[in-house]
Design brief:
228 residues, alpha/beta, six-stranded mixed sheet, 9 helices, globular, disordered C terminus
């Protein structure tokens, strides 16, 4: 039996599009979130690991910390030793990143993929260092998450890996900032067209709007620097 599992901890694309406005056009905004959602599932499948998707319909708890802690505990109950947790808001996530995180968990009990704001887009955790109550009290959804996880881990072990830093998408500013990165822009446009729509369920006008985004003026959306 594979000792590592992937946990996709997220909201459904419909729910996410109602909470996060990545684009002013509602149809494009919904499309972006559906693309991210579908892409994350595809990446988990490509990794070859068993994966579990826990969205708002399956999450339990009174707050984010309790919900993610309960979701991780539920996967550990299935006898896995390591869990790699990812959300659905990182367009640069790949199967290679998941495989790298799994490899790092052979040498350390925790692995984190930091985002550019002090949060994380990925977390790998071993059963040996998972304390549900303490884990739920991490300052989730803040720019202190990565530092707090490092402190959490050092209370159990001195081994903690940080893998490459990536961008996640929570706001319009994040979306336009990501577009300013040439490689990410290409990947993201391809993601929207090929994963969400497959070229079938999108009107020419919306497709034109999505493709034209790469030529938009992004200066007003530049993200502020983040210090660690």
């Amino acid at each position: 039996m594979n000792k590592t599992a992937i946990l996709i901890f997220c909201r459904s694309a419909k729910k996410e599009s109602g909470c996060k406005k990545l684009h002013a056009n509602a149809k494009i905004n919904q499309g972006l979130h559906l693309a991210l959602y579908n892409k994350t599932i595809k990446v988990a499948q490509e990794s070859g690991f068993p994966y579990f998707l826990v969205d708002e319909n399956l999450q339990t708890g009174n707050n984010f910390g309790e919900k993610i802690s309960n979701a991780i505990a539920s996967v550990f109950q299935k006898k896995f030793e390591n869990i790699i947790v990812a959300g659905s808001d990182c367009p640069q996530l790949s199967a290679g990143i998941l495989l790298n995180a799994a490899d790092k968990l052979n040498d350390a009990p925790m692995v984190a993929g930091p985002d550019v704001k002090g949060g994380i887009y990925l977390l790998g955790i071993s059963r040996s260092v998972f304390d549900p109550k303490a884990f739920s009290e991490i300052p989730w959804q803040t720019n202190k998450v990565c530092k707090a996880l490092l402190q959490y881990c050092t209370s159990f072990s001195n081994n903690f890996f940080l893998i490459e830093k990536l961008n996640d998408l929570n706001t319009q500013a994040d979306f336009y900032f990501l577009k300013s990165i040439r490689k990410a822009t290409h990947q993201f446009i391809h993601l929207i067209v090929s994963i969400i729509t497959g070229g079938k369920n999108i009107t020419p006008s919306v497709l034109y709007s999505i493709n034209s985004l790469r030529f938009s003026n992004t200066k007003q959306f530049r993200a502020p620097p983040v210090f660690f």
